[in-house]
């Protein structure tokens, strides 16, 4: 019985791993193609027995505090229902982005990898409260337009500046201090984004890096996050795609 249970757990774990390998890994400078993502909305059931999964039994879906939040959450719900080739963050990572951005009172948030705007909308939940602004970069014109439409219908156009182009080049135009940098574009390019933007992240600011579990991150990027004494880096939600949270120390 014990062996059968362990076998079943191993099978579930293997299936999750196999699904996660299908997530995108675009090369530098090239737009990512549609891919299957293991996470649609709440990716791990609340009572999951997946090894390493966080016990989410006490969590509930976000509750709108006001009409503005309700409008954004309605679009997020809609996008979660119809994800297709947009490679979005899982819902729990989106919620974490909001919590992080709002708790540090982020005014200037920079996102590399807009896609259809889903993670940007989670960030906008915070920015509507902090009086902040999101600058988000994407190289793909189709996803740029999708995001534009989603930001519009969520009523957050005024909170967002979208930049269309290769972020490796475009970020060099940034000059203002960054409160929160979210990296979620071409996986081989993370180290370049970090090297270019870390000097702009303010002391006490955050670097949030997506896909720290799956697809496997660039070891040099992980090394840069974990061996720099100026950073305190943690890795969370690693049962799914994984999120790096790095504090630039004061
Ligand atoms: C994983 S998706 C972003 C998902 C988004 N953050 C979300 O959760 O809703 C990665 C995006 O990065 C974009 N991308 C890839 N290489 C890029 C580059 N060199 N410059 C800008 N964007 C790039 C792709 O077009 C794609 O839309």
Automatic annotation (TrEMBL):
<feature type="compositionally biased region" description="Polar residues">
    <location>
        <begin position="33"/>
        <end position="51"/>
    </location>
</feature>
<dbReference type="InterPro" id="IPR002935">
    <property type="entry name" value="SAM_O-MeTrfase"/>
</dbReference>
<protein>
    <submittedName>
        <fullName>O-methyltransferase/MSMEI_4947</fullName>
        <ecNumber>2.1.1.-</ecNumber>
    </submittedName>
</protein>
<keyword id="KW-0949">S-adenosyl-L-methionine</keyword>
<keyword id="KW-0732">Signal</keyword>
<dbReference type="GO" id="GO:0032259">
    <property type="term" value="P:methylation"/>
</dbReference>
<dbReference type="GO" id="GO:0008171">
    <property type="term" value="F:O-methyltransferase activity"/>
</dbReference>
<keyword id="KW-0808">Transferase</keyword>
<dbReference type="Pfam" id="PF01596">
    <property type="entry name" value="Methyltransf_3"/>
</dbReference>
<keyword id="KW-0489">Methyltransferase</keyword>
<feature type="signal peptide">
    <location>
        <begin position="1"/>
        <end position="25"/>
    </location>
</feature>
<feature type="region of interest" description="Disordered">
    <location>
        <begin position="27"/>
        <end position="63"/>
    </location>
</feature>
<dbReference type="InterPro" id="IPR029063">
    <property type="entry name" value="SAM-dependent_MTases_sf"/>
</dbReference>
């Amino acid at each position: 019985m014990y062996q059968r249970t362990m076998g079943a757990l191993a099978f579930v774990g293997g299936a999750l791993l196999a699904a996660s390998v299908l997530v995108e890994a675009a090369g530098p400078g090239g737009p990512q193609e549609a891919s299957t993502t293991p996470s649609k909305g709440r990716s791990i059931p609340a009572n999951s027995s997946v090894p390493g999964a966080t016990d989410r039994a006490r969590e509930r879906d976000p509750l709108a505090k006001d009409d503005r939040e309700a409008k954004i959450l309605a679009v997020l719900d809609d996008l979660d229902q119809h994800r297709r080739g947009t490679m979005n963050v899982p819902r729990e990572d989106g919620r974490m982005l909001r919590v992080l951005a709002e708790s540090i009172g982020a005014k200037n948030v920079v996102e590399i990898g807009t896609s259809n705007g889903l993670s940007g909308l989670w960030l906008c939940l915070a920015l509507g409260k902090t009086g902040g602004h999101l600058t988000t970069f994407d190289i793909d014109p189709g996803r740029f337009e999708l995001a534009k439409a989603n930001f519009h219908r969520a009523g957050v156009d005024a909170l967002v500046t979208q930049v269309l182009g290769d972020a490796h080049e475009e970020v060099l135009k940034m000059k203002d201090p960054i409160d929160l940098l979210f990296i979620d574009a071409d996986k081989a390019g993370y180290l370049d984004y970090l090297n270019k933007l870390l000097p702009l992240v303010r002391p006490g600011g955050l670097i949030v890096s997506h896909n720290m579990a799956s697809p496997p991150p660039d070891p040099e990027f992980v090394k840069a996050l974990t061996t720099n004494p100026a950073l305190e880096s943690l890795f969370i939600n690693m049962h799914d795609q994984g999120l790096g949270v790095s504090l630039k120390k004061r």
